[in-house]
Design brief:
Elements: H1 2-15, H2 17-55, E1 59-64, H3 69-73, H4 82-91, E2 95-110, E3 113-122, H5 126-130, E4 134-137, H6 142-146, E5 151-154, H7 156-161, E6 172-175, E7 178-186, E8 191-192, E9 195-196, E10 201-204, H8 205-217, E11 221-226, H9 232-246, E12 257-261, H10 262-284, H11 286-305, H12 307-315, H13 320-356, H14 367-393, H15 397-402
Parallel strand pairs: 3-10, 5-7
Antiparallel strand pairs: 1-11, 1-12, 2-3, 2-6, 2-11, 4-7, 5-10, 6-7, 8-9
Length: about 400
């Protein structure tokens, strides 16, 4: 019986193709808009999550930070040194390794070409902590760092900007007022939201301290690796306790440093992206309700047009439940076809829009969005099809047969 009703519904929709298409248009627009918006935002979220995963869920970043307000002003000079970081590595049971970083922006020159890049001073363990490795050449050694040698490792994007040779090892570039010998080129990372992660110069931390002075050495950040992702929260408390003791902060004084874990960054981003997704999808879903009202309106017209058909069916033995089922299946089928077309259009619109937006990382269509859209389409068809179907089922067979 269900199969017969489905065939009848499809025949009825096919007999009025244009009307069926216009009826389903609201559903198509609503579903495609929801899928398109979700795919664009989730594409950004996927790339961001991948970047965080590459850094490591068990990574923690510590940087100097003056607290806002009067309490922050009372703290005097805010300092954070690599000695603080080494103390954390020694005394925190949850932390297994760390590296300092000191960043400045400098004019970098090779031949007649020049550009401004971030110059990062760090130590040899940076590669392992950051999960970011040299593609050509080598990274700094302990000797480079200890002897404060003028050697550097370049981001992949610097090669093209400065028109360096394909194999730049041994070439010299000028960073600020000093000459540095190139010993390595990092693997390419690409762009994300307009930021190019391949344009930087890295030098040994000892060299950076020698160039920028002791003041710079008292304003460093450090990257720490926790023994496991499960220990990140405990490590955060241990780091805070160690640094507060070293900085002689009283209980009522705020921290003069900031501790950020990769989990915190990822969760904050997910909250923002999910919030935007839900709000925009909720607004766009209004189109689905409009489509549902259109379905109910057309189904009411269909009941009126097919009054004699309903009378004939009842006269030959069809019960109310049969008529009710027929029209509900017809409404749900119309909504499902609209939902399916909307999903396919939404996927296309999402990927097209992502490709047209400058520097957008791409689109991603999560399964939950497809299932939700398809389910919501079914619910719309069922909800807005019940009243017309019930009206058809209640028609008197004798009055229906007399209907002109």
């Amino acid at each position: 019986m269900f199969l017969e009703n489905l065939i009848l519904a499809l025949k009825s929709l096919w007999a009025n193709k244009m009307r069926s298409f216009l009826t389903a248009l609201g559903i198509i627009i609503g579903v495609s808009a929801v899928i398109g918006v979700v795919s664009i935002i989730q594409g950004l979220s996927q790339v961001f999550s991948t970047e965080i995963a590459n850094l490591g869920a068990n990574s923690v970043i510590v940087e100097p930070r003056r607290p806002a307000g009067k309490e922050g002003e009372k703290l005097g000079r805010v300092e954070l040194t690599w000695e603080d970081g080494q103390a954390v590595v020694r005394n925190s049971p949850s932390v297994e390794a760390g590296t300092p970083y000191l960043q400045r922006f400098e004019r970098v020159k090779f031949g007649e070409e020049s550009a401004q890049y971030p110059v990062v001073g760090t130590t040899p363990v940076f590669q392992d902590l950051r999960n970011y490795y040299v593609q050509d050449g080598r990274f700094f050694s302990e000797i480079d760092d200890r002897e404060r040698l003028n050697v550097c490792v370049l981001g992949h994007g610097v090669l093209k900007d400065l028109k360096l040779p394909e194999n730049p090892m041994g070439q010299e570039i000028r960073v600020g007022g000093s000459a540095y010998r190139i010993i390595g080129v990092m693997e390419p990372k690409g762009q994300f939201l307009g930021q190019d992660f391949d344009k930087f110069v890295m030098i040994p931390f000892g060299t950076a301290v020698g160039v920028y002075g002791d003041d710079a050495a008292r304003q460093v950040g450090f990257l720490l690796r926790v023994r496991s992702a499960e220990l990140v929260e405990r490590a955060t408390h241990e780091i805070e306790d160690i640094l507060r003791i070293r900085h002689h902060l009283r209980p009522e004084q705020p921290n003069d440093f900031e501790i950020v874990s990769q989990n915190q960054i990822q969760k904050a981003f997910e909250r923002v992206s999910n919030g935007v997704t839900y709000v925009v999808a909720g607004i766009v879903s209004i189109a689905l309700l409009v489509g549902g009202i259109g379905i109910m309106n057309i189904m009411l017209v269909s009941v009126t047009e097919r009054t004699r058909e309903i009378g004939v069916r009842k006269a030959v033995g069809a019960r109310r439940v049969n008529i009710l089922t027929q029209f509900i299946i017809e409404a749900v089928t119309l909504a499902l076809i609209g939902g399916l077309v909307g999903i396919l259009m939404g996927i296309g619109v999402g990927f097209l829009a992502a490709s047209l937006i400058p520097n957008w990382p791409g689109a991603y269509v999560p399964i939950w969005a497809v299932v939700l859209s398809f389910g919501f389409s079914s619910a719309v068809g069922l909800f807005f099809g019940i009243y017309p179907a019930a009206k058809a089922a209640r028609l008197d067979p004798i009055e229906s047969l007399r209907y002109e």
